[in-house]
Sequence to fold (259 residues):
Amino acid sequence: MCRRSIGFVGGGRVTGIILAGLKKANKLPDEIVVSDVNSDMLDKIYKAFPSVKVELGGNKSAAEKDIVFIAVHPSVMKDLLDEIAPSLGTEAIVVSLAPKYSMAKLSEGLKGHNKIIRMIPNAPSVIGAGYNPAAFSESLSGEEREAVLSMLSVLGECPEVPEENLEAYAILSAMGPTYLWFQFYELQEIGKSFGLSEHASAEAVAKMASGAVQAMSEAGLKPMEVMDLVPVKPLGNEETNIRNMYRSNLEGLYKKLKG
Fold:
């Protein structure tokens, strides 16, 4: 699988995350091309991954590879698909990393090309700890699926899920870290203000977060029982507001992605 060529159409954060995860596992393919219209993004990619070829302003070279990752926003997808369709090889596997754009719409935009995977990437893939749900088109053979999964497995878990659930995963697993990271870092700063060293505060927060998640899945308790394990709840008066904030923001975003 590592001998297969790979193209990334789009050189933003997600492309950098996937390349970093592959590099960490020593699984970078020999031939990789990243294309983008932003020279600063491509410079950043090239500095981090000198073996990667970059393509500024056009996507032909990236789209000609064996596996083509589409790493752009849904808003520019239609024009992009029109552009790259003539460059795709008949056996190329297209991996879309965007929510909202269905396999049917992708295939239509690619003039009938139907070897398609949709994956929702997760930022911890940068260290091989990602959770990247994926849906596969029926036209992919078992061998093709296993080849791609073999590569993606070094990024973390890549469960196969129904396509109609991908937008839910975009809200939960792809965007989920953004709901929590700023809180974890704020707790670290608070710990330092209480006299802990930077290392001690960071370790305490990391161990707390890891153990809290383990307790949810391994304690054999109901949600209310888990949340009642700690009697003192300093933010208890804010829980209703926080829950409402999650509901109002995330439900609206989900409807937008599914619309």
